Automatic annotation (TrEMBL):
UniProt-recorded name of the protein: Cryptochrome DASH
Cofactor(s) for this UniProt protein: (6R)-5,10-methylene-5,6,7,8-tetrahydrofolate; FAD
InterPro entries (UniProt xref): Cry_DASH, Crypto/Photolyase_FAD-like_sf, Crypto/Photolyase_N_sf, Cryptochr/Photolyase_FAD-bd, Cryptochrome/DNA_photolyase_1, DNA_photolyase_N, Rossmann-like_a/b/a_fold
Domain Photolyase/cryptochrome alpha/beta stretches: 5-164
Free-text cofactor note: Binds 1 5,10-methenyltetrahydrofolate (MTHF) per subunit. Binds 1 FAD per subunit.
Gene Ontology MF: a single term: FAD binding
Gly residues composition-biased segments: 625-635
Pfam family, any one: DNA_photolyase
């Protein structure tokens, strides 16, 4: 390519064409002088297992260590996200081709791949642009790319990530250390949220980007890897190592639940993200969001935009812009939908609020860096968690490992927790309400190292996002930015509040479908009818007969049913506060693990045993927990409320 001057655009978690500042700048600012644009996506070998890209029959081995987590040894990217990512990358390719460009796909360490491309004489690469990220590994990638560029005499530009609600340029502080440690303080600095986000960038017209370089000019993938030429091939390569029988995701994984429908059946990609957003507005689901977001079942109780946001298939400001068009009545496509043209409603206001939580979690990551992964969290709380290497007295490494396995496999004996864990395993998704309970159960009831839970979520979640995942785990574990470090969820009360008919738990634990009493579904050990247990095949099941935790939950009088809107939506946020105090007392403990853990050193000693706390706090409100819970506040859009303050 004589006289060429090529720019490499290294895509990361910005897998979209629209509202993309890098592409926009290439179209608008012609002074850059680049004749060619080489868009590339690298599947990063340290975060995702790439050995499946070695062709079948090859004797060669991957030069990289397995992409496994540090504490639990789980695959860092499990099958659900691997598939979603493949679809998103493939859709990016489609989107780029539509504007007359294209996408090269590679695997390996980002720095190495870029270094290899910089060496191409034919391409004459003079610059590498990429979007900056917060993570420690991601920053290391950026340093590697900068080094490679410096050695090759090419410019390296790290762009600001613009997939958040409020742009970095509009933050009221420059130094991340000035970020308040309480979300509400931050929120108040940013309100009114409706006025803050910047406008979406103009659409990229066809054939306005610098020329896409020919295949022959681009260095090929380094061996032993080969890049498939179809989406199916890409999925196969990513899934192959994750589905090997000798390396299961977890021992004895939960069986597939017949008849259960995924709450997240969506495919990855920019186009799918916008279809989803359009559906939320045109169906009215967005306007109902405030009262449905705590639902456990079904696709429409919450937005299910998280996985698209995590990969940058869509930006928060695009979501905001569509909501504005709905609120202001400027998009006739939605004119028949109730609330059209009537300004911000509870649903759209609440969604902005949640998107701000996401911004906040990312800023916490920026402020605290490696503390995101530290057992004592942002707070630096003096905690020693139980783990296989730190079993409680009277227990062994093997017995703690078994407890963890039961947690992962959804066989703790606690209905809500097991249902969520099985749903997660089967589908890659579980609701925010369920996540809060799962995280609370692992850390506040079992006192097990929260990082094991965070790593498992990293492996299993389709919407895994480093800041939101690790930040929320810390928050619920009591070592993060939750000013109330005594927050403790009672998973039985929560099940009554949000799954009053036990519909959710029965969906994901088919063994319990024959039970009619919700209390028995929530804790199968409480079913005393021997004949029924026998008939349902519950006799002899360890998780039924020896649950990890027993909670005596007495219903003082007929438990009120929460307001339920929409099919399959279990509970509104309001139920939480209304019901508080109407249920009887709770007492936790009773299991062998609870007894052993009661005398444990470390976490339990520092924080008081679950049994005593659970007992004395039986009537306490369990408002929220785990960043981003606005449920039940009855908050008018854009206004603060006491409960919200209480939550944060
Ligand atoms: C232990 C734990 C782990 C979590 N891990 C992740 C994760 O890896 N990735 C992730 O995106 N979210 C995570 N969350 C936050 C939240 O559970 C999910 O964002 C939400 O369930 C995704 O579903 P949705 O898109 O339908 O959410 P909606 O209720 O529709 O919310 C809209 C958007 O707001 C953002 N949001 C909502 N709640 C939060 C929150 N608490 N923190 C940060 N952002 C929020 C998300 O981007 C979400 O898509 C976690 C929460 C907990 C308690």
């Amino acid at each position: 390519m004589p006289n060429s001057k090529t720019l490499v655009y290294l895509f990361r978690r910005d897998l979209r064409v629209a509202d993309n500042p890098i592409l926009q700048s290439l179209v608008k600012e012609k002074a850059h002088g680049y004749t060619h644009l080489l868009p590339i996506y690298v599947f990063p070998a340290q975060q995702l297992e790439v050995s499946g890209f070695i062709p079948l029959g090859s004797e060669e081995k991957s030069p990289y260590p397995e992409a496994r987590s540090r504490v639990g040894g789980f695959w860092r990217c499990g099958p659900h996200r691997a598939k979603f990512l493949a679809e998103s990358v493939w859709d990016l390719k489609r989107g780029l081709e539509e504007v007359g460009s294209g996408l090269y796909i590679r695997v390996g360490m980002v720095g190495e791949v870029i270094d290899n491309i910089l060496k191409s004489k034919e391409l004459n690469v003079k610059g590498v642009w990429m979007t900056g990220e917060e993570g420690v590994e991601e920053k290391a990638e950026e340093r590697d790319v900068k080094r490679a560029c410096a050695a090759a005499g090419a410019e390296c530009v790290i762009w600001v990530d613009e997939k958040y609600l409020i742009d970095d340029a509009d933050l009221p502080f420059k130094d991340p250390q000035e970020l308040p440690d309480v979300f509400t303080t931050y929120r108040k600095m940013m309100e009114p949220l409706r006025n803050k986000p910047r406008a979406v960038l103009p659409t990229i017209a066809k054939n306005t980007l610098p020329t896409f370089p020919s295949k022959s000019s681009v260095p090929s993938q380094h061996p032993p890897f080969v890049i498939p030429t179809s989406l199916q091939g890409l999925k196969n390569a990513l899934l192959k190592p994750l589905t090997q029988v000798n390396a299961p995701l977890t021992k004895k994984p939960p069986p597939y639940c017949k008849g259960a429908q995924s709450a997240h059946p969506f495919k990855g990609g920019e186009m799918q993200a916008h279809n989803r957003l359009n559906h939320l507005l045109s169906s009215g689901a967005m306007s109902n969001y405030h009262s449905t977001r705590n639902g456990l079942l079904g696709t429409d109780c919450s937005s299910k935009l998280s996985a698209y946001l995590a990969l940058g298939c869509i930006t928060s400001r695009q979501i905001h812009a569509s909501m504005l068009a709905f609120e202001d009545g400027t998009n006739p496509a939605w004119s028949a939908v109730p609330g059209y043209g009537e300004g911000e409603n509870e649903g759209t206001g609440s969604l902005r609020f949640e998107l701000l939580w996401r911004d906040y979690m990312r800023l916490c990551n920026r402020k605290y860096g490696t503390k995101l992964f530290h057992p004592s969290g942002f707070k630096g709380s003096p905690t020693t968690w139980l783990s296989p290497s730190n079993p409680p007295e009277g227990q062994t490494t093997a017995s703690v490992t078994e407890i963890i396995q039961r947690f992962l496999n959804g066989t703790t004996g606690m209905g809500l927790i097991d249902a969520s864990q099985r749903e997660l395993f089967q589908t890659g998704y579980t609701s925010n309400r369920a996540r809060q309970n799962v995280a609370s159960f692992l850390t506040k009831h079992l006192h097990i190292d929260w990082r094991i839970g965070a790593e498992w979520y990293e492996c299993m979640l389709v919407d895994y996002d480093q800041s939101s995942n690790w930040g929320n785990w810390q928050y619920v574990a009591g070592v993060g930015n939750d000013p109330r470090d005594t927050r403790n969820f009672n998973p039985v009360k929560q099940a009554f509040d949000y799954d009053p008919h036990a519909e959710y738990v029965k969906t994901w634990i088919p063994e319990l479908r024959g039970l009619s009493e919700p209390s028995e579904v929530f804790q199968a050990w409480t079913c005393k009818d021997e004949e029924l247990r026998e008939r349902l095949g519950l006799r002899g099941l360890k998780w039924v007969e020896e649950p990890l935790e027993k909670i005596d939950f007495v219903i003082a009088r007929k438990y009120p049913r929460p307001r339920v809107r929409g099919k399959g939506n279990a509970g509104s946020g309001g139920a939480d506060s209304r019901d508080a105090g109407r249920s009887g007392g709770t007492k936790t403990g009773g299991s062998e693990w609870a007894r052993a853990r009661g005398s444990a050193r470390g976490a339990s000693a520092n924080r008081g045993s679950a049994s005593s706390r659970g007992h004395s706090r039986g009537h306490r409100r369990e408002k929220g927990g785990g960043g981003g819970d606005s449920g039940g506040s009855g908050r008018k859009a854009g206004q603060a409320s006491e409960k919200e303050a209480e939550h944060s």
